[in-house]
Amino acid sequence: MRTLPTIKKSFEVQFEYQLFFTNKLFTPSNTILKDVFKSFSEKPVKTLVVIDDGVERTREDLRKEIEWYAHKYERHIDLRQILSIEGGEKAKVETANLERILKAINDFGICRHSFVLAIGGGAVIDTAGYAAAIAHRGVKLIRIPTTVLAQNDAAVGVKNGINFFGKKNFLGSFAPPFAIINDYDFLQTLSQRDWIAGIAEAVKVSAIKDASFFGFLETNAKKMAARDEEVVNQMIHRCAELHMEHIANGGDPFESGSSRPLDFGHWAAHKLEQMTNFELRHGEAVAMGIALDLTYARLKGLTNETTLERVLKVLTDIGFDIKIPVTSKSEIEELLLGIEEFREHLGGQLTITLIQEIGQKYDVHEIDIGIMKKAITQRKTAKVVNL
Known about the structure:
It is a single chain. By secondary structure, this protein is α/β, with parallel strands linked by helices. About 45% of the residues lie in helices and about 15% in strands. The chain has a 6-stranded parallel β-sheet with strand order 1-8-5-4-2-3, with helices on both faces. The chain has a two-stranded antiparallel ribbon with strand order 6-7. Helix 8 runs parallel beside helix 12 (about 280-300) and helix 9 (about 210-225) packs parallel to helix 13. About 45% of the residues are buried.
């Protein structure tokens, strides 16, 4: 039989999405959301709203506000259902909430020309985004993040996912949202713990990408912790901008390779979240992970004392406890398993991002386990947190 020639083609797909900043989004006089719908279609767009139940508890009138807004702009918004799901990391555990969202998409006729409107913290945004991505091979998604962490990082990227097999984001997709809308008013009801936790991602991205921004965080650390509105808005805007610039211009938006600079400090963070049964907030774990990796880098002679101390100080000035919550040798060994799990998640060569100086990142592909154990020992505390 004659061998037939191989057929090979290539194509490019252009993605575009926008991040809006506003206050009191569902006030009838605020037309940003209506305008987003109008930019998609001149006809009413079928919409499923998914709300973080924690947000709904603190904003008792939110459901009525959404219904009234949709009624006012019914020429553009065809509100089919408002679904409340469990907030926090529990939103992403196994498939229960995912299945609830998928069922609602099916029951209320949400199609590829419809919107899923996700309102909540990063975990709810992730879960609703994954459901939208896999239903009908892609329902349009609008994200309305309600935490500092989600507004400056988790909701501004192109990733969605849930935890499975006890591993963070084991199931997931890359699916850019149609739009993201940051509403500062949602941040007002955050606990102080959740408020602070979100700032860790700003420290992360500034340390690897922008020394000037890091200097801004140093100068304003205590103002951010005190909820200074102008400073916090600047922090969120610049942090989100850096994350979106990396996605658009980093050359690997769907993370086909093994380099994951935006996951600086995250191998330990993901494992610590798991070890504490997700009692640690993601941002709290990221702060610990950053401190740990920089302590390791200092012990290896890969960074200098000044850089280490500057990062540790800005984290503690913001209000983070950066002590690693492990005490025994077995707990240290369990934490170290996170390195291999991180390599597995990358899908190839182990790549850990470190910094030589503020704003100057570099990747390492091997970890000296003996020195990492020393780094953990330096950063650990005698107090056990749900281990």
